[in-house]
Amino acid sequence: xNELIVCVIGCGAMAKNGHGPAYQKYVHAHxxxxxxxCCDIDPAKAAFFRDTFGFEKAYTDFDAMLDExxxxxxxxxxxxxxxx
Length: 84
What we know:
Elements: E1 4-9, H1 13-29, E2 33-39, H2 43-53, E3 57-59, H3 62-69, E4 73-76
């Protein structure tokens, strides 16, 4: 099976409390999944998310993350007012 390369944009409360634990659980059950990158405009939030949930690298610039990693999946976890 092909590797599933996951990146996350937004490492705030919703990501930390809901999505992060789910990603961590999922990756332990599926060996073809790689938690490659997470991004937040707050570098401390991105670093916390990386360290807590097992992502490989933290970013503050999502364009740089996407250009470097070329993920197969991107999860956007930001408030509706920040997406558009």
